[in-house]
Amino acid sequence: MERGGQDRTAAVKEREAASRTPSHSRTHGKAGAQAAEVSGKALGGMIEAFMRLPGIGRKSAERLAYAILGMPMEEASGIAQAILDLKNNSRYCPICNNITEDAVCSICRDEKRDATRICVVEEPSNILILEKTGIFRGRYHAIMGAIAPIDGIGPEDLKIDGLMERLKAGGIKEVILATNPTVKGETTALYLSKLIKPHGISVSRIAYGLPVGGDIEYADENTVQRALEGRREM
Amino acid sequence: MERGGQDRTAAVKEREAASRTPSHSRTHGKAGAQAAEVSGKALGGMIEAFMRLPGIGRKSAERLAYAILGMPMEEASGIAQAILDLKNNSRYCPICNNITEDAVCSICRDEKRDATRICVVEEPSNILILEKTGIFRGRYHAIMGAIAPIDGIGPEDLKIDGLMERLKAGGIKEVILATNPTVKGETTALYLSKLIKPHGISVSRIAYGLPVGGDIEYADENTVQRALEGRREM
């Protein structure tokens, strides 16, 4: 995916990818080589390809490769085509960085949504998660990452400029910070809060607490502490 | 993958696939539809495509789809190409049913391997697992499934004829039954044992016992019982 003139985040990602490459490719090579020896190069290549995906280890990659083998040709080529379609047809929304196939994404285009509220997320994928709740009817802004000094990622590596331009254009009453409940996400929320408040815009942070359906017995101390602090009168 | 004249197993697999389809496609449709609404049809299609793979649920499929989006074009199209290469170039070995790109698989071709021993497995993927141990230097035979009367799969639905032809051709001293340690695998092993022994060939079954690195505390009763029964003098 090309993002003309906005190549800082891309540079950060490539740097990260490069630092991960050595150990990765060594593992891939070995797993693929043995499969290739026993059952052919195409199988070895497929296993190595699947191992490039996040959360897919050697065993999962082998299982998936044999599943592709067992599929009708039509179904397997459908998966290959879906990958190509996704890469060829999808881009980032120039307003909010959501994934879209159009000039502007469906959420930014939707006149019925509340244009006075922006929910800030780290990644475009988070937009889908929030949309599933169905309770937020405002708009979004994905800043494409989080501040992580230890990884050399500062505010200038994120898509914060675009967010500030939207806020400066006026009409925004509230910004909801829905960055992750992690040190990075918290740091980013704090940074954004300090940046946005002077513009006279209300800034809120999504709540910490016990996950629904969870058992207090298994919650960590920090979560329980946050749940206590965030208690609400009944 | 085409297997001329051997379409009974294929028919069984299609029957199974058909019985799984209704609930599956409903789930796919919903997950893909919401993603398509928020972030475009190509993303929705990719999520649905990944969900057709075994062990990939909605959340994993979403994660994988966004990973494809974040990849360089070259890497993503490499995965698509690997799928097509695998389907176009791989076939079953006509002797043992291992996956191969050649007329006969590398193991059946290898003159240095012990041609007097055949290890019987349920699926071609099991051959790779056994080869990783490096201790078996004979040949294999994948029977493409296991006997499961409850699913309507009898011996006639498996590739047992080919195994028996190899045995009748002579020169085989031992058959190792490495079907799964399940009711189906055990039933199949028992059936094969009764079928093969009259030919004067030694038949053995891989051992049951505690998994290496496991804790006896967490082993189920049946496994502990088998481990006791299979004890060996030290």
- Number of discrete helical segments of chain A: 9
Outline the low-pLDDT stretches of chain A. 1-27
Average pLDDT for all residues of chain A: 85
Which range best describes the helical content of chain A: under 10%, 10-25%, 25-40%, 40-55%, 55-70% or over 70%? Answer: 40-55%
Shape of chain A: globular
CATH class assignment of the largest domain in chain A: Alpha Beta
Strand content of chain A: 5-15%
List descriptors.
234 residues; homodimer; two-stranded antiparallel sheet; Helicase, Ruva Protein, domain 3; globular; 4-stranded parallel beta sheet; Dna Topoisomerase Vi A Subunit, Chain: A, domain 2; 2 domains; alpha/beta; 6 strands
Layout of strands and helices, then pairs:
Two copies of one chain form a homodimer.
Chain A: H1 8-39, H2 41-51, H3 58-70, H4 73-89, E1 91-92, E2 99-100, H5 106-109, E3 117-121, H6 124-133, E4 139-142, H7 160-168, E5 174-177, H8 183-196, E6 202-205, H9 221-229
Parallel strand pairs in A: 3-4, 3-5, 5-6
Antiparallel strand pairs in A: 1-2
